[in-house]
Design brief:
Structural class: mainly beta
Distance between the termini: 18 Å
Largest sheet: 7 strands, antiparallel
Number of strands: 12
Shape: globular
Number of helices: 2
Order of helices and strands: EEEEHEEEEEEHEE
Helix content: under 10%
Number of domains: 1
Strand content: 35-45%
C-alpha cells in the first residue's frame, strides 16, 4: 500500500504479489475491498480485469483497475493496472477520492482476494489492514532507478503516532524487473 500526492488528491497503489507467476494477466482477477467509513463493512471493491471484457464483453488485452461502489453499484476506472505478462506482482492504482478517502477522512481498512478466471483457484486474506493515505505510519512512494548489479539506499521513516493507529507489518519493495515469484516483491518486517 502506498499513497502518492497529486494536486487535489492522492493516488493509492495496492501491490499484490502471488509468489507464483501467471502467464497472462487477463487470466487473473485481484480484488481489494475497502472500508472507507470504518464501519466494518466494505464500501468499495477495487479490482483488476480486462477493460474490453468489462466494457464491451470482448477481451481487449488491456488490464484496468476498476472501482465498484458496493452500495450504489456504480463502476468506474481511473487507471490501467500495472501487471506484465509472465509476472507475479500487480499494482492497482486508484484515486483516493474514488474510494471516499479524503484529507478529512484519511484512514481506511482494506483486505485482498484473488481468483483465476479459468479455474476454481482462489485465495483471500481473513484479516484486514489499516492505512492513512495522507499521513502514513511508514514513509512510502519512494522510487529509485538502479543500474544492473548496483545498490542504492532509500531512507524510510516511521511516524510513531500514526503507527499506533494504523500499524504496518513492514515494507513491500516491488521490483518488476526481477525474476517473477517471491523475488519480484521483497518483504521487510518493521518492528517499532
Amino acid at each position: 500500500m502506498q499513497s502518492l500526492a497529486v494536486p487535489g488528491d492522492r493516488i493509492l497503489v495496492f501491490a499484490i504479489n502471488t509468489f507464483k507467476p501467471w502467464s497472462a494477466p487477463s487470466m487473473q482477477e485481484f480484488d481489494v475491498f475497502i472500508d472507507s467509513d470504518d464501519d466494518g463493512v466494505p464500501d468499495f471493491d477495487v479490482f483488476s480485469d480486462d477493460f474490453g471484457l468489462v466494457v464491451t464483453g470482448e477481451f481487449s488485452g488491456e488490464i484496468a483497475t476498476f472501482v465498484l461502489n458496493l452500495h450504489t453499484g456504480d463502476l468506474s476506472a481511473d487507471f490501467d493496472a500495472l501487471m506484465p505478462t509472465d509476472a507475479s506482482t500487480i499494482l492497482l492504482p486508484v484515486f483516493a477520492s474514488s474510494v471516499a478517502v479524503t484529507s478529512a477522512q484519511p484512514r481506511f481498512s482494506y483486505t485482498a482476494s484473488a481468483f483465476d478466471l479459468f479455474s476454481d483457484d482462489s485465495d483471500q486474506f481473513d484479516a484486514s489492514a489499516r492505512f492513512n493515505a495522507f499521513n502514513s505510519a511508514i514513509s512510502n512512494g519512494q522510487f529509485a532507478v538502479i543500474a544492473p548489479d548496483a545498490t542504492v539506499s532509500v531512507p524510510v521513516s516511521v511516524n510513531p503516532t500514526e503507527f499506533a493507529s494504523t500499524p504496518a507489518k513492514g515494507l513491500m519493495i516491488v521490483t518488476q524487473d526481477d525474476k517473477n515469484g517471491p523475488e519480484e516483491a521483497n518483504l521487510l518486517k518493521v518492528k517499532f
